[in-house]
Each structure stands twice: as C-alpha cells, then as structure tokens.
Write a structure and sequence with these properties.
Layout (H helix, E strand, L loop, with lengths): L1 E4 L9 H5 L4 E3 L5 E3 L9 H10 L5 E4 L6
Antiparallel strand pairs: 1-4, 2-3
C-alpha cells in the first residue's frame, strides 16, 4: 500500500489523524501530512478507513498486489 495526500484539497478535517495518528498528522496550517507513505500491514485497514472518512477525499491509496 502506498498513501498520498492532496494538500490542496485538504479542508483540515483531521479525521485521518484521529483515525491513524501513526501514519497521518497535520501541519501548522491544519493540512494533512503523511508521516508513513508505505504503512505497515497492520495499519492498512485503518488507512483505508481514514481515506474513506476524509470529507475532502484528499487521501489516495495505491494498493500493491500481495507477494506470492
């Protein structure tokens, strides 16, 4: 999984940071900051939830195929 945030779309809702503070933060202006663009597998479900909860849809997730 790879995460990207569109800071120009961000409306400072803070739901991403509240859902997964290990991966998301906000800067001094309240805009999203991705701390861990490739989160650990145990954070994938919460990262998807954070993207879903974002009112501006500012979080993009690229899923990678599982290695076999």
């Amino acid at each position: 999984m790879r995460l990207r945030a569109d800071r120009e779309s961000c409306i400072s809702g803070g739901r991403c940071m509240a859902t997964l503070p290990e991966v998301f933060d906000q800067d001094d202006e309240g805009l999203v900051v991705v701390l861990t663009p490739e989160p650990a597998p145990e954070h994938h479900d919460k990262a998807r939830e954070a993207a879903y909860l974002c009112p501006a849809r500012a979080i993009d997730i690229t899923e990678r195929p599982s290695p076999r």
